[in-house]
Amino acid sequence: MAIGYPIPKFYFKVSRPEQExxxxxxxxxxxxxxxxxxxxxxxxxxxxxxxxxxxxxPGLRKFSNVTLKKGVIQGFKDSNAEFFxxxxxxxxxxxxxxxxxxxxxxxxxxxxxEGHAVxxxxxxxxxxxxxxxNDMKADANEVAVESLELAIExxxxxxx
Length: 160
What we know:
It comes from Chryseolinea soli. The protein is mostly beta strands. The protein contains two helices and ten strands.
């Protein structure tokens, strides 16, 4: 590993710290986007302040939805059945539609060339708000990709 060079962004893992998905503790995604947040700006001025300007205070943090994309792989549903039950149709307790225990913590880790974690993003209380499937075209030369959009309540970044 070369010290002092930026880390390539293609070697990452999406995993579950609690390993609630019984068959695998990590699921292969091809793209992760939306790892950001912003802090609201509050402007305030006292009525008797001699300065003719407002002071600026930090407000609430707002988190973007995180989007995970992966290729559709034959047999993937069987090996990760609990993951698909979580994002699925709501037939079992614990899914989004039943609104019982559906929030999950997810860790996204960026690795160096040797596979060591460099940066880890922890998504707290994530839950699926949108599942999108690929368009199908008879004349296309592309793989089928599905995306999962997650709402999150907190985003923690840890540099290793």
